[in-house]
Write a structure and sequence with these properties.
The protein is mainly alpha-helical and about 375 residues long. Helix 12 packs across helix 14. The chain has a single domain, classed as Orthogonal Bundle (Farnesyl Diphosphate Synthase), CATH 1.10.600.10. The chain has 16 helices and two strands. Strand 1 and strand 2 form a beta hairpin. The longest helix has about 30 residues. Strands 1-2 form a two-stranded antiparallel sheet.
């Protein structure tokens, strides 16, 4: 069975148990159960895949067995599948909260969770504010998913030695803190950029990438999986050396998609990051290269939620003409090379190294 299928099966099993628990509390919670299931029904599963291959890099290094052969890799495979599924629940929670903060209407081509419950309120003609109801409900669902992710993660730790469980738990907790603080730093850059010294903006944008995305999306899942397999310090260092630059490249691709992505593929409106006022590396590089008059126009337009297609197209053209897009592409390529070099001499399973290099290409060349 494919990894994504194993993870989806575990997610579905967990949600089945939660559905029963929610139904026992009140039939009114069926809408919550349904929303959670829809939210977790798709996605690229990148974090689950990095977690799995971080584990396989260590667990299968001695004999190069098929890492999906349950009989060959003893009884730790169910534990890493639990951890991978838990990361998917946590990521779903992060998406719910992120969509609230960004006022996003769509997620994967469907209404974002707060819009879904806003529409439910409006359709039923309930009292009070439909937007407030949608936002409050989505906040609660996000919090619920965070708690559930912890429950699912802990459920598998009894199957591994205490030191492995402790190390994985530490990495999981660090991930939660870092991505939350990285999200705050992202909001801070959007709000306070005008008072930040021009020379500091690029380094600050890079810091947001590292803590909001690079560590969370790539490094932490790798280290959680490797810790479950009792990785050595050298193995963990190699995976860190791979994870951080690749995570940076991953987010830089996301930044480009947030400006230039095809909405029919990304499932979000074109130019959404421009309406949100994201102060990304792309934006800073463009501002450094463009004439002062153009920079003033960019600063006036960036963050305006009412930007129309013509204004979006104008900003896209300015970014391309400045050379910033080409430079971001070059930075992505450089970081992918650094990631690959970190694995070149690493003491990890050959099959896992190959899979991680393939995954590196997948996450940095994607269209959504």
């Amino acid at each position: 069975m494919r990894l994504v299928d194993l993870v989806q099966r575990r997610v579905d099993e967990f949600l089945d148990a939660q559905d029963s628990a929610l139904a026992g509390i009140s039939p009114d919670l069926a809408t919550i159960a349904s929303a959670c299931r829809d939210l977790l029904a798709g996605g690229k599963r990148f974090r689950a895949r990095f977690c799995y291959w971080g584990w396989a890099a260590v667990a299968t290094v001695a004999d190069e067995v098929d890492p999906l052969d349950e009989s060959a890799v003893h009884d730790t495979l169910p534990t890493v599948i639990d951890a991978a599924a838990a990361l998917e629940l946590f990521h779903a929670a992060a998406l719910v909260h992120d969509d609230i903060m960004d006022h996003s209407d769509l997620r994967r081509g469907a209404p974002s969770l707060h819009r879904r419950f806003e529409a439910l309120h409006a359709e039923r003609g309930w009292r009070g504010s439909a937007p407030d109801y949608g936002t409050a409900t989505a906040l609660l669902v996000g919090d619920l998913l965070i708690g559930w992710s912890d429950d699912l993660f802990e459920s598998g730790l009894a199957r591994v030695p205490a030191d492995a469980a402790r190390a994985a738990r530490t990495e999981f907790g660090l991930m939660r803190s870092e991505v939350t603080l990285g999200q705050y730093l992202d909001m801070l850059e959007e709000s306070a950029w005008a008072e930040i010294d021009e020379e500091e903006r690029l380094s600050r944008a890079h810091r947001v990438i590292v803590y909001k995305s690079a560590k969370y999306s790539v490094e932490a899942p790798l280290l959680i999986g490797a810790s479950l397999a009792q990785a050595s310090l050298a193995q963990l260092d190699a995976l860190r050396g791979f994870g951080v630059p690749l995570g940076v490249a991953f987010q830089l691709r996301d930044d480009l998609l947030g400006v230039f992505g095809d909405s029919s593929v990304t499932g979000k409106p074109a130019g959404d990051d421009l309406r949100d006022g994201k102060r990304t590396v792309l934006v800073d590089l463009a501002r450094r290269r463009l004439p002062a008059g153009t920079v003033r126009i960019i600063d006036e337009l960036l963050g305006d939620p009412s930007l129309d297609e013509e204004q979006i197209a104008m900003l896209q053209t300015a970014f391309r003409d400045s050379g910033a897009v080409d430079e971001v592409e070059a930075i992505i390529d450089r970081n992918v090379r650094l990631a690959a070099e970190a694995l070149a001499e690493a003491s990890i399973a050959r099959s896992a190294r190959d899979a991680l290099l393939t995954l590196a290409n997948d996450v940095t060349r994607r269209r959504a």
